[in-house]
Amino acid sequence: MIRREKRIAVLFVLPTILILLAISIFPLIYSFYLSLCQWDVGMGGRRIFIGVGNYLRLFSDQRFWGAMKNTGLELLIGVGTQFLVGLGLALLLNRYFRGRNLVVTLFLLPMMISPVVVGCIWRIIYHYQYGPLNFLLARMGLNPVNWLGSSQVSIYSIIIADIWEWTPFMLITLLAGLQAIPDELYEAARVDGAGRWAIFSRVVLPLLRPVIIIAVLIRVMDAFKIFDLVVLLTHGGPGQSSETIAFYNYTTGFKYFSMGYASAMAYFQLAVIVIIANVFLASWKRREVS
Amino acid sequence: MKIRDGMKVAIFLTIFVVLLIMLSPFIWNVMTSFKDKGEYFTYPPVFIPRSFDLEHYVQGGKLGGIKGMRDSLIIASSTTLIAIVLGSLAAYSLARFRIGGDNLAFWILSVRMMPPIASVLPLFLFFRFLRWLDTYQALILTHSLVNLPFAVWMMKGFFEELPQELEEAALVDGCGRLGAFARVALPLVAPGLVATALFCFMFSWNEFLFALILGRSRVTPITVNIAGMIGGHEILWAEISAVSIMASVPIIIMAIVLQRYLVRGLTLGAVKG
Fold first, then answer.
1. Where are the transmembrane segments (chain B) (predicted)?
2. CB A4 to CB B177 under 8 A?
């Protein structure tokens, strides 16, 4: 009987494991091998094993570091704003009222529609001559901004659209965290004579910490992926001023067909993400132990 | 008491104003989809279009919108089906028999953490080798790669919440393990199943990077179709807006109809990490 149970247990997970193995592990090993080769498919080039050459090339590649910088900006400004606004909204919505589910669902709209659609929407809004955003600025007596055509501004335009799209994610995650805090704790703090700010900083924030860490971690990992908005809004331009790491990686692999170099770049990103994730998870676990 | 009421009004007013600001880009898009050519290329911009005819929707549909919707539907529903069926089997095994301990569960989740750009290149070469580029199965499999781990984790949470005694009773009554799973456990986690399916469908429907690289001319999901329209010489704003609304409507309807499950599903996933 026990053995039969065990067989069923294995049988149940086997399909999932097989699919994941076939389409993740095997190609990943293959592409690690590629990252050690020079292989420019577009030039009809042959595959030559060059060891860590591609990785060394990353360090002297100005364009790569430019893309890293833009990704970093998205990470600091974009994710930072999403967190602050999301937290504020979550605190506002953390009370019961009629139709709350509907209001929350409406707030979630930007993250539910496709990033491609988000790109379309903002492309129209940012239009230099005919867009509503510059019209509003003019109404306020300000100069129009060349949102997508200026190399100083374009990356921030992408970040603004990203903030619009993903603040809802922070909102819903933090709201969920807030709702998991039992009401008695608020009551107890109030009885002890704590004010609003004291309750927030000494009760709510510490209890919310694990959720905050997970939410920020997920968005930080996503910041490395930001691609759709770049394609739709600026295509990395003007010049390479709004290129992100995922976009440069895509260009290297599928425009220049430098498969080896693109693989190395992807592996570098993977390493950075794994390191960041581990730092976050370590601080998450530390909390749970203490 | 007066002050608290004033506070309440202020809070709801703030929520309302922020919601309006959040929704305004989307509303603008809806308006644009109805505008005539002369109306979206004007200064000052026109806010409310003169007429609300569906001409641009018809045009957008002809420009590949209908084909895109069909392809997305095929890919997203197949992916959801795979993720739900295989995912709940695996989740049940992980939750009930603790097979493979934490390590197996964690490995499954870690597959999802891969940045797509890191996995798309090997997948491209892999499918090229199989001559599967530009086919439905390539995109269905690739989307499953992301959705299956997600479904496993979400369903695992729901199964763990279910008291084990319910199935034990069924086993005593002569049901097999498979019967206990299919007739007792599965119906009880139905709300979780709905939430998980909604998320899988949404992800697959909205996905762009894999679709752009692995699809081409025969398979063009709606996202690729929209992006193609915006890159063109003459940008047909109203048609693009119309198609992007068409692409969003199924998701929005699903979300509003299933809002109870959606919020609960997100809540559960978030709190459990």
1. 9-28, 73-92, 104-130, 180-205, 235-258
2. yes
Residues of B with CB below 8 A from A92's CB? 11, 14-15, 18
Instruction: Tell me whether the omega of the peptide bond preceding residue A238 falls within 30 degrees of 0, making it cis.
Output: yes
Asked whether the beta carbons of B96 and B164 are under 8 A apart, the reply is yes
Global pTM value: 0.88
User: Rounded to whole angstroms, how far apart are CA atoms A257 and B213?
Assistant: 12
Residues in chain A closer than 8 A to B100 (CB atoms) = 13
Listed residue (B261, B250, B267, B262) closest to B204, CA to CA: B250
Q: Treating both helix axes as pointing N-terminal to C-terminal, what angle do B101-113 and B66-96 enclose, rounded to 10 degrees?
A: 160
Helix axes A100-107, B2-32, angle to 10 degrees: 50
SS3 A127: coil
For residue B255, give both structure tokens. Answer: 């979300």
Q: What is the dihedral of CA B212, B218, B219, B222, to 10 degrees?
A: 80
Per-residue pLDDT of chain A (290 residues; tens, 9 = 90+): 567 778 888 889 999 999 888 878 878 888 889 899 888 886 667 888 888 889 999 999 999 999 999 999 999 999 999 999 999 999 999 888 888 888 888 998 999 899 999 999 999 899 888 888 999 998 898 888 889 888 899 999 999 999 999 999 999 889 988 888 888 888 888 888 888 888 888 888 888 888 888 889 888 888 888 999 999 999 887 888 999 999 999 999 888 888 889 999 998 988 888 888 888 878 777 765 54
Of all residues in chain A, the one with the smallest CA distance to B110 is A274
Helix (H, G, I), strand (E, B) or coil at B11: helix
Are B167 and B186 in contact by the 8 Å Cβ rule? The answer is no
Chain A residues near residue B44 by CB distance under 8 angstroms: 135
Residue with tokens 């068409």, as numbered in its chain: B246
A29: three-class secondary structure by DSSP: helix
- The rounded distance, in Å, linking the Cα atoms of B74 and B219 is 10
| Residue B9 CB neighbours (<10 A) | 9
Instruction: Quote the ipTM score.
Output: 0.86
CA distance B76 to A188: 48
Rounded to the nearest angstrom, the minimum Cα separation between A132 and chain B is: 6
